[in-house]
Fold each of these.
Amino acid sequence: MSVVPFTLLIAAASTAVIAPIALALAAWSWRAGVRGAVIDTIAMLPLVLPPTAVGFMLLSVLPRPIVFTPAAVVIACGVMSFPLMFTAFRVALETTDRRYFDLARTLGATPARAFARVTLPLAWRGLLSALLLGYCRAIGEFGATILVAGNIPGRTQTLALAIYERVQSGRDHEAALLVSYVMLIALSLAGLSTMLIHRQRKRMAA
Amino acid sequence: MIEIDVHLPLAHFTLQAHCTLTAKVTALAGPSGSGKTSLVESIAGLRPATGRIAIDGVTISDLPPERRAVGYVPQDVALFPHLDVRGNVRFGGHDEGRFETLVTMLELEPLLRRATVSLSGGERQRVALARALMTQPRLLLLDEPLASIDQPLRERILLFLRRVRDTGVPMLYVTHQSFEALALATDCLVLRNGAIAAHGPVAEVLGEFSGEVENLFEVDDPRHDPERGITRVTTSGGLELVLPYDAVAGATFPLVVRISGEEIVVFGARPESISSRNVIAAEVIDVREREGVVDLTASATQPIRIRITRAAADDLGIRAGSRVWLALRSRSFRVVG
């Protein structure tokens, strides 16, 4: 598979794996209020640590057969995109008025049902925007991936790694072409994400 | 019967409410920031308070909000913006019969497919009432149901609130000295700085705390006399009053009317030539002076509150025990609802 579809697929897989976990934790933190700050802080770690440090830690916990496989790329991308997705989920949930959730409970809904039937539908634009941001981050992931998955063309090489490899071997024109692809993808997805955030804010202000 | 024993620390004071509500409808009054909404929210389970709340002997304070069977309509009603009117009402339950009954009672049929953003204040209030009632609550909490409703529409909302009251669900509602809203309640609970300052029948409690001197009379047994333009009525306290026929001819009795204590004229002796049809003999039972005015409570068959100037009080030599005659112009009465 060529590097562009491979990258998009890997990013999609990592988003699919990490999104439910990020959403569940964001929901828990949103409900917990101040007590959720612990989760907020831990969730930030992959963002503030050097990616190579995260890669090293993953390398030491992942089973041997997974290392240097596409699965390892998925895991590295997932872990590294987690903080951005988690934070964006949190923000999206915060934009919904918590009172709707509370009110749903006075109407007989359990916390899970109130969240699913009221908070999620109210926050869907922000949540989708968070998914897109996480996806973009997964596409661009480099540091942790190269440690746990290497840079094997046709097996674990994503766009970010391919650019690095082309520049290292002096194939700047190829690198420029890949950069233009990644620019196009990132711009369109980030643009869509921004538009969704604006709509979400507008809706909640109305 | 609602037993409330709540202890809840707030920003500027601690809400401490200990009372038992026995009336079907109780108004919760008090100045802004006195803890009214906090008390209502803690009953609904939305604010963690220590203490005990029980409905008909069943303790609900240790239950999560969804198991308390307490309906709550907040001040801004908070209809779910992603659901239409039908979706909002249905959120509270799936009982088809109950849904139809509420739609009929609150006249929601034409609104069912509408988005909530397109509704007027009064319509939103009705949808929120239906949504809360779908859960078959054992207690209905309303936070200032008339606050965002313009005057001409208030009577209409009051009509719907009365229908809700008549279904028998006990109600506790927050009001900000709204006489129209008080017309619904039999009892009134006044909160001040988080403590219960008064609790009792509306008419008694209200005058004490509203700052204004108001008299509310629930009147019934109308005897219309269109030719003379009057309607004779009897208050729940046994007073015979004369009201303008045109003001009450179309009303549904029992009716609540009010008259400001400033519009009642006091005489030291029975007035001989006076146009007022309501001249009532009474005995002054309480005299309070403040800032150039004197507030009197006079007892006829029921207490009547009057505000006169200090000079007038001095002229009449009024003190507790004085015998007075009160003139209540029939045109001074306002129909509350």
Amino acid sequence: MSLDLVANVVIAGVLTGLVYGLMALGLSVIFGVVRVVNFAHGEMMTIAMYATTVLFAALKLDPFLCILPVAAAFFVFGYAMQVGLVNPFITRPEHSQFMLLVAVAIIMVNALLMIFGPDARNVQVDYQLESFEIGKILIDKARLYSAGAAVLAALGLFAFFRYSLIGKAIRACADNYLGARVVGLDVKRLYALTFGLGSLCVAVAGCAMVLLVDVTPALGPAYTLLAFVIVIVGGLGSMGGALLGGVLIGVSEALAGLFIVPSAKSMFSFGLLILVLLFRPQGLLGRK
Amino acid sequence: MRAHAALAVLAVVLLALPWFAGSYALSVATLILYFAYTGQAWNVMMGFAGQLSLGHAVYVGVGGYAAGALFFHYGVGPWAGLWLAILLCVALGLVIGFLAFRFGISGVYFALLTIAFAEFTRIGFDHLDWLGGPGGMFLKVAQRDSIDLLNFRGPPAMYYYAILALTAGAFALCFLLLKSRAGYYWQAIRENEEAAQALGINTFRWKMLAVAISSAMTAVSGVFFAFYYNNLFPEQIFHISRSIEIILGPIIGGVGTLFGPILGAVVLTVLSDGITEGLAALGWEIPGIKQVFYGIVLLAVIMFLPNGIWPALARRLGLHK
């Protein structure tokens, strides 16, 4: 096996991993602030992917242009979901929150199945077949652009949380719930904004991911698990950790597909998850 | 008194069911009891001791495959396989429990650890050719009308009585457990682990006991599953949707209550079958529509009855607790 092949596979894994990372970033932001694990996360990702295929088929809109309408719709959807469904569950026990989001996930997967059927859908644009050549290294254009979009979205979110007043207020809620209320922050509204932002990450990741894989309704639960693995490995609630975790999982999946059977690839992800949970439960970049 | 009379009537109806119910009703009743039993097993860990496991399918799967493989490869019946299943599942449960509790993993993290173990095992079994791999393992089905107790082969009524006995046994066991020292310690740990520890309870040991009992009970349900359905696929038996299916009943019925898992299993199975029938009658047979309705009902129950149906019903009926 040549070194070039391995290099190619690793680069593809890193780029796909960045898109995974953005998806997981959404989960991490929601958990970090609202302290609710979104068990419908992967299902939301597939909804964004289907939305992109529909816009592409109907309007011939490039998937990267689809990001704007899909992300806007998802922000509103996430905001509404937090206000309508999740807020009343904030103080309930974990298994109750879990049930709520599992019910939402069941509805989402099967609504997609009803509307689109079980067959795979995709988008086809010409740059999917093209690639950049650097020596013997080939980089798929679509994959590079997708990773670029994911990184831009993640940077935007970092900047929002670091510099904007609302971002700082949201971080204050995450750090100290009681303190945030004492200084007069509208915590419920900030939670809703956070869920909206987390959904927005998923939307961007979904628009980018549809260029790389075909979408089926069954992909939803698999992505939910993948997002869990990534955020735990990176550190639940840590933003940089989510991206790092995404890249690690992307590369390990790609290498497992190359050296062992492709169907065993997620076994390594779950193995990695178990090891991280045991030896560094706060995640690679998480704080205690 | 009225409650005792109601229980006696229920027992008579359940015992006589195979005589008047058709084969379809009997299979539904068997399914309800299967979920009631498995839910009761999960409830020991979550409802009593407060440890949220989202990977209970791993015990059903390992238990089912252990007894199934002994029968498939060596023709050894489930009475021996049962012990192997229990042994393996308790060992697995104790490993997961030891790692989690020693390393201080709790809450959401514990739940995710149990999912990770179940998924890891699922993919592992997919690559074990000795157990059939993804193509599944099929147990030989003998004559359906003669009863072969030694190999647990027989007509549907035999399986019905077996799972009825298991459910009744699990109910009695849980009743006794709740009244025992372990039951009180578990509830103390569930409500406030630090306080329990401060009172001198060795929380590690009692949590491990809960995991051991729960995994042993679930192993038995795996053996039943293997010999009732006669086929095992890693993709199905270990899948996270199976783990969710197991815990929906007790959560809908009432976590930590004795009747919750049973009531939840009845409500969910009847609901699921009712939706199927109703949609078929209306002629709406689009794939996925049934689960959408199911999800909406789940959502409604969890929103309006946060503690489950049983506590609300018991209050309405004037039964205390």
Amino acid sequence: MESLGQLVLFLVVFTDFAVLGSSRLSACIRAVALQGLLLGLLPPILYGSSSVHAWTLAAGTIVVKAIALPAFLRWAIREASVRREVEPLIGYMASLLLGVAALAASFAVANVLPVIGGGAGLLIPAALVTVIIGLIVLITRAKALTQVVGYLMLENGIYLFGLTQLERVPFLVEVGVLLDVFVGVFIMGIVVFHINREFDSISAARLTELRE
Amino acid sequence: MMQFAGDHPALPSALGALGVLLVGAPLVPGVAARTRALLTGRRGPPAWQLYADLAKLLRKGAVYSTTTTWAFRLAPLAVVVTTVMACLLLPVDGRSALVSFTGDVVAFAYLLGLGRFLLVLGALDTGSSFEGMGASREVTFASLVEPGLFVVLVALGIATQRLSLTGMFGAELWREWSLVAPSVILLAASLFVLMLAECSRVPVDDPATHLELTMIHEVMVLDHSGPDFALILYANALKLGVFATLVLDLLVPRAELAAWASAATLVAGLVACGAAVGVVESTMARLRLPKVPLFIAGGTALGLFGLILLLQ
């Protein structure tokens, strides 16, 4: 069980890098959906398959993060007829190198971070790196939709961090995390939809030009 | 401490495995081509096609342009000799190399580099701007592969506390393998990606293409003919075999096996590696030239991930 959990966390980190390195929007969404699925598998693996709580959390996570949100993002692409390319503000190469730097930093920080309960092996570094790479995607991609993907990854990282405290934190908080993502993406989706309708572009760079 | 073949602990096994590698290497591109053909619904040439090609080329005469000098004639020989020398440093039987000394990893990397350098010199010696272009592309990608290769070697050096290929890929790796397994698997994956770039396989270069604009490695060797070209083809297949052996050494423990079992595993590993290359070639399109650095950087990132895991 221990090594299976580590393997899943590995794959989570890989999906982070897949989002950083891919130039197609659909590939990004697929990677984030896979990440959602992996996150859903984690609670039963880390906390034993006998816990009803873990299974409920797994089901909820998979439904929201791996099925509903990616479907919603794909729908937004179709409806708003977004161009299929990611438009990075910095090159893919630089993004990847930033990602590796983030990985190094998160492992360094995870070693000195006093987390109650600890969390097994890769959990904390994987959480930190997912948060940081989510931030990188959020900052360095021009399109509102890719920024939603980055925000989702950020949330996924926070969720991973939450897993270290699964036994202490009430169920409600976890549901809150899921709801938070759902509402956030919903609102951003609507915004994306409207921006595209109003201005024929969903580049966030244009948002700076808005005046009252 | 320097160790030579004379006082080698398991000389027959090491020599046998080296022989298997030297003879079996042309099988790797053959199996790759065969797998690619099968997966794309064609019959394809047999897996031993390269042997037939080599035999045919060796029977032919070589034609030399009057503008070329000794550098052009040296290149094919030099590239085979450096690659075979690199093989001597490699623990082909999964136990220990024929020649090993502290720091031979650097010798290994730069023997391959020297072979390529001489090949590039030969290409430039023809005076053809086209070959110059191919050489420039090849060197550009090779300069990107080299840091990746050293990331992998440094990580293995840290994992095993050794600085020779025998220590890093041989029996000593397997004493600590279970402790460092996740990062070693990552390093093997990184080596596989670097192999595709280093040996001019599909996402980076296409050995089957003869369209001028897309050729990289093939351009450089365009003017070589007959036995010279056979040597170059053989050296490239052997380089693929060398990388396949490195990946195999990282993933399959062969230190405890008998000599024949180790050699059989090596053949199986070469075939498996060829098949893996074939699967990549039939599922991936060739990358646009500007995308290649990203691909190689991705491979290097895998190695860096492995390194970071080790340092944790």
